[in-house]
Amino acid sequence: MLSLFLPLFLILLLVGLPVFFGLIAAPAILLWLNGQERDIVLLYRNVYNGMDSFPLMAIPFFMLAGEVMNRSNITLRLVEFSQAMMGHLRGGLAHVNVLSSMLFAGLSGSAVADVSALGSMLIPAMEKQGYTRSFAAAITAASSIIGPIIPPSGIMIIYAYVMGESVAALFLAGIVPGILMGGGLMLMIHFLADRYNLPAATRRATWGERGNASLKAIWPLLTPVIIMGGILGGIFTPTEAAAVAVGYATLIGLFVMRTLRLSDLPDVLTRAGMTSAVVLLLVGAAMAFKTVASLSHTPELLASIILGLSDNPLILLFLINLLLFVVGMFLDAGPAIIILGPILGPIFTSLGVDSVHFAIIMAVNLTVGLLTPPMGLVLFVTSSVSGLRVETIARATLPFLAVEIFVIFLITYFPAISLTVPRFFGFVQ
Predict the structure, then answer these.
(1) What pLDDT band is residue 298 in, cutting at 50, 70 and 90?
(2) Would you say 23 and 282 are in contact if contact means Cβ atoms under 8 Å apart?
(3) What's phi and psi for 199, nearest 5 deg?
(4) Which of 123, 147, 151, 127 is nearest to 137 (CA)?
(5) Where do runs of H (alpha helix) occur along 296-376?
(6) How far, in Å, CA of 109 to CA of 104, rounded?
(7) 355: phi then psi, degrees, rounded to nearest 5
(8) pTM to 2 decimal places
């Protein structure tokens, strides 16, 4: 069924059907053609059942926290902090863009939120300093990919929900890969400084200016500390941590920074609700498809095909990286994890690959897919923010995409990159 589902799903997308409707229409058509009309009812019932989960409540809460922080101009504080620390380097504002994305990742966990918040601010600022608009848009898009890797992460919550993994373990496992990806992008900026004639460094900030910028940024920077500290300390669950993040962001916005007004909250709640609805509907549709795929024994068939290719785990990991990269071009990370996670995860754990390690391989691969055409959501959002064509941005991101693919293979073949931190805290043996 899976072999027929993907072509049919792509055809439905090409004729203009939204992804959600494509995810539920394609398996329904296949069931009907297979004479399984009774199972179509089960398909649509599982759309709701797939969303009805306490762990998944963390996703709308984290999205709401990100919206509150955006409206509170917390993003500006992070950019000012990054500027004070790295603005003096050659191509300084490009480095600031990457560092801001890494810091913002610890607040929202969303690539789209990152592009929306930072892109509207940094792309015009970079252009004013002498960067081309395409380069500014490309580094903004490429660095936003770090958002779902450094905790908190919506897609890791989805993976934990589907596969029964510890959210805390996945959050911890994403820290070093996220930092590695940010460092790789900064290294590429350094190499491209001469080729693109990036603006020379501005003056180095004094220690007093750095201290002042740090004090202004201290409240938002405490957010990931509170989230991870609370989860690791057993004070609250990931879902409760997300709710705490919302309360904390609201309090500092209203009473500490005083940049958020009560009149802003209805619009903030509406925006967060609409974004969350999109994500959860996709999750529900993917869970429904997963149920239908199980009924048709698709996982077993695909497992036998994969294991028939090779019995060498290293070769299989290479092939799976290619598969996930291609899937990420067409399917959002959340639905792809729900559909493929239960199929691929058990195969590789049976071959000796640690389950947390495989989760990070899958999550990072599919996240990078947000940057690849034809369905890369980050490209479309960046296009909207920058006013450039998607094709122009996609071409400009190629050097940064090469870095991120290189990091994926480092993560794949050096498990310690992902497992050292969760092993230190006792989540991995």
Answers:
(1) low
(2) yes
(3) -55, 140
(4) 123
(5) 298-309, 313-330, 333-350, 355-368
(6) 8
(7) -65, -35
(8) 0.86
| DSSP codes of every residue in 43-82 | HHHHHHHHH--TGGGHHHHHHHHHHHHHHTTHHHHHHHHH
Q: What is the pLDDT of residue 3?
A: 60
Residues in CB range of 11: below 8 A, 6 or more apart: none
The count of other CB atoms within 10 Å of the CB of residue 63 is: 26
Can you give the C-alpha Rg of the chain in angstroms? 21
Q: Token pair for residue 309?
A: 């290719």
**CA dihedral of 279, 285, 290, 291, whole degrees rounded to 10:** 130
Rounded Cα distance, 51 and 239, in Å = 14
Q: Which residue has the higher pLDDT, 185 or 4?
A: 185
Chain centroid to Cα 216, Å, comes to: 27
| Residue 244 φ then ψ, to 5° | -60, -40
Q: Which candidate, 282, 280, 273, 335, places its Cα nearest to that of 20?
A: 282
CA atoms within 13 A on the CB side of 323: 17
Residue 362: per-residue pLDDT: 93
Q: How far apart are CA 239 and CA 246, in angstroms?
A: 11
Instruction: State the CB neighbour count (10 A cutoff) for residue 79.
Output: 26
DSSP annotation of 275 reads H
Q: Between the CA of residue 31 and those of 25, 44, 53, 293, 348, what are the distances in Å?
A: 10, 12, 26, 10, 29
Place of tokens 């398996």: 27
CA separation for the pair 285, 268 (Å, rounded)? 26
At a CB cut-off of 8 Å and minimum separation 6, what does 204 contact?
Answer: 88
